[in-house]
From TrEMBL:
<dbReference type="InterPro" id="IPR036895">
    <property type="entry name" value="Uracil-DNA_glycosylase-like_sf"/>
</dbReference>
<feature type="compositionally biased region" description="Pro residues">
    <location>
        <begin position="7"/>
        <end position="19"/>
    </location>
</feature>
<feature type="domain" description="Uracil-DNA glycosylase-like">
    <location>
        <begin position="56"/>
        <end position="212"/>
    </location>
</feature>
<protein>
    <submittedName>
        <fullName>Uracil-DNA glycosylase</fullName>
    </submittedName>
</protein>
<dbReference type="InterPro" id="IPR005122">
    <property type="entry name" value="Uracil-DNA_glycosylase-like"/>
</dbReference>
<feature type="region of interest" description="Disordered">
    <location>
        <begin position="1"/>
        <end position="29"/>
    </location>
</feature>
<dbReference type="InterPro" id="IPR047124">
    <property type="entry name" value="HI_0220.2"/>
</dbReference>
<dbReference type="Pfam" id="PF03167">
    <property type="entry name" value="UDG"/>
</dbReference>
Length: 221
């Protein structure tokens, strides 16, 4: 029989867009469980969120790998589950992880740059993550991990916020080794990246094998 791994329940339902904007705060000495509950109750950006606040994350104090991605899309907003779409399949393939391991919060945590779906841009595509989110929640949550080994920075927003890098995304990814150990910069695993990767064969030939090695190492006992 296969190993049964813990999986967090989906995020609570969305709050209405006209909810009062409120940061629930976090008292000093709070546990990760408490921080996750507080993050789920955040409505700070309510006036800017067309579908209402529904913070989506996957957090556990014992996790080994933290994924800092952009912001949930509409599918994740509706289901409450991050990366349960084609981008998630692609990301799991890059990492060499099946769904069981990916959704095991003791192995993989997910704390995006913006935890709520930010809406659509007038010209198409999703809005950038809300700028309030990462500066508020990342400093509260990050110290509560007990033994984080690897942080994956998925997309330009996460790379800029964490590494402070202004290099073009492709160049930053090509120079991934400069961020090891500890951080691994990646493009967003959208269909656009498939097109981009065809023009930059070093991504599949060099970056993905190195990424799988780092992930396997971070999950070793
Ligand atoms: S995006 Fe972040 S800061 Fe804004 S309401 Fe959602 S959880 Fe709160």
């Amino acid at each position: 029989m296969g190993l049964i791994r813990p999986r967090l329940p989906p995020a609570p339902p969305a709050a209405p867009p006209d909810s009062p904007a409120r940061d629930p705060g976090l008292p000093p000495g709070a546990t990760m469980e408490r921080a996750a509950a507080a993050a789920s109750a955040c409505t700070l950006c309510a006036p800017h969120l067309p579908l209402g606040p529904r913070p989506i994350h996957q957090l556990h104090r014992d996790t080994r790998i933290l994924i800092t991605s952009q912001a949930p899309g509409t599918k994740a907003h509706l289901s409450g589950i991050p990366f349960e779409d084609a981008s998630g399949e692609r990301l799991r393939d890059w990492l060499g992880l099946d769904k069981d391991r990916f959704y095991d919060p003791t192995q993989v945590a997910i704390l995006p740059m913006g935890m709520c779906y930010p809406g659509r841009l007038p010209g198409g595509g999703d809005c950038p993550p809300r700028p309030e989110c990462a500066p508020l929640w990342h400093p509260r949550v990050l110290p509560l991990f007990s033994g984080l080994r690897l942080r994956l920075l998925v997309g330009a927003h996460a790379i800029r916020f964490v590494l402070g890098s202004r290099l073009p995304l492709g160049e930053r990814v090509a120079r991934f080794a400069e961020s090891l150990p500890g951080h691994f910069p990646l493009p967003h695993p959208s269909w656009r990246t498939l097109v981009w990767a065809k023009k930059h064969p070093w991504f599949d030939a060099e970056v993905i094998p190195a990424l799988r090695r780092e992930v396997a190492r971070a999950l070793e006992d």
